[in-house]
Amino acid sequence: MKVLNILHDSVVDGEGMRTVIFFAGCPHFCKGCHNPKSWNIRNGSEMTVDEIVDEVMSNPLCDVTLSGGDPFYQAGEVKEVARRLRENGKNIWAYSGYTLEELLDLGGDYVELLSYCDVLVDGPFILAEKDLSLDFCGSRNQRVIDLNQLNLAERTG
Question: All domains of the chain, ordered by start, with CATH?
Fold first, then answer.
């Protein structure tokens, strides 16, 4: 899959210290995006599931954030990364320009990826609703959703 960067020791991309995987590719093209280079999947470097998991696990003190771009743009492959990291005890946050409801409607790989995540920060960045006072969000329309309160496992398969 295509990855732009893996950044260790972030304290702004979810609770606690996190390793952030920035996946390439995003269909949302949000005006004011902090990472427009991430829109084009060709800007990423090819990495295997094993390579990504090994890099993340090289820093055992950090939990994980899936970001981008939009990690759901490559949901079929990213779900395997998330599954393996979850099996290794990692708490996983995911950022997406899709809303939770849109991801649930898409079904399949999208819901399976959600099922391995603990928290979803959803919704596109909307420049007119930008709010620097928010924790872990860039605009007021975005939500921080505790996915552990939902039973996503029954929606997969």
Answer: 2-155 (3.20.20.70)
